[in-house]
Amino acid sequence: MTEMASSSLPTEDTEFEDGVATRDAVFLRDKRIVEALLFASERPLAEEDFRFHLGKDAQIEAILAELAADFAPRGVNLKNVAGKWVLRTAEDLGYLLIREKHEPRKLSRAAMETLAIVAYHQPVTRAEIEDIRGVATSKGTLDVLLETGWVRLRGRRKAPGRPVTYGTTEAFLDQFGLQAINELPGLAELKGAGFFDGRLPADFNVPEPTDSAELQADEDPLEEDLFVALSEERLGVEEERLEAEAGE
To answer: Which of 19, 38, 148, 202 has its Cα between 20 and 30 A from that of 113?
Structure first.
């Protein structure tokens, strides 16, 4: 059965009435394969994932653009999240699946403020977070954000004590539906949404966020030390707990 299904797909050597496979036929074949990969995948797919199956010369960008247009009016849409592609329920139909959605743990106000600071000011240390917030940040707050997978350890600041720097993850972009970190709202958008009441200081500004994986000049790489090992162990324990709860 598998051989029959695969042989029915046109290939570059397939002969038509004119004796030569047309480029349109190859494009349509590749489009069907991309659609099948998206449907079967449990995670967002990068263009490299498609090229692995179709080859380096496949028109991946054109195929994805056409598929996105095809799915736009449907109940399932093709979305670009963090530079990768995934099929998602249309936003206007989300309420129909509310009973089947996993209810995430709500973050405290302190955690939300800390997450926002990390997103806009990364790479940032705990001391810098406290300086921006104006209050001390408990260790548990950062632990919660690490456990959600939205914040990660980046490196160590080249400063006395070599404090750890924090940044956001691809899971953060996925959670908030962002293609890139620079899609976070700027000052004008935040004002328009009513997040700032009253007059702001003349020198107040919202930084241009970046989540580049490359360490900055004032960062050292994280070595395999006890701090990293404990962090990874804590994340593993949390994943096991969630899996156990899901199985109950």
So the answer is: 202
